[in-house]
Amino acid sequence: MRKHKSTNIIVVITFSLILVLSIGYISFGNEQSLKNNKQNLISYGSKKQKNIALTFDDGPHPEYTAEILDLLKEYDIKATFFVLGKLAEQYPDIIKRQAAEGHEIGNHTYSHVDVRKATREQFEEEFNKTQEIIRSLTDIESKVFRPPYGYFSSSLQNSVASYFTAFQSIEMAGIPPILGIYTVSSCL
Fold first, then answer.
1. Gap between the Cα atoms of 83 and 37, Å rounded
2. If you average pLDDT over residues 153-180, what whole number do you get?
3. Which of 2, 52, 124, 182 is 20 to 30 A (C-alpha) from 161?
């Protein structure tokens, strides 16, 4: 039974990575706007170190997140979980466990709002509400944000420029970097 669960977790992780890479490759079409608007962006960590960031979003899920946390604990691995505020409210114990086990908790908006269609006010409400939920559950100010659907543009950056201080990219041979993690300095 344990081997079956581990296999399921590995399948979920692999599928998540493929999904993120696919969506990111399709969604991040506004490369020129990024080149023109770099004041708060850092695209890479040290290229001398061989590190990888393991991230999950759209959770917490009542079953799968706990299984992933068990597996990460077994192998002493830390990850970043980009949570939806409405699910964090539903499953506060999972968020508390993530923080207690030393994982980073990031903001993924309250309801997975499509930032391409939301007004600035709608986005800020979603963002700030999730920041407050994370803070109230963990006593930690979330420092990272991942936009739903992986959408990023100069317009999004301009509307929340005070939040972002860095992004992390994923780069594979022959594929342009895919932006994934945005570091947050504060919320309004």
1. 27
2. 50
3. 52
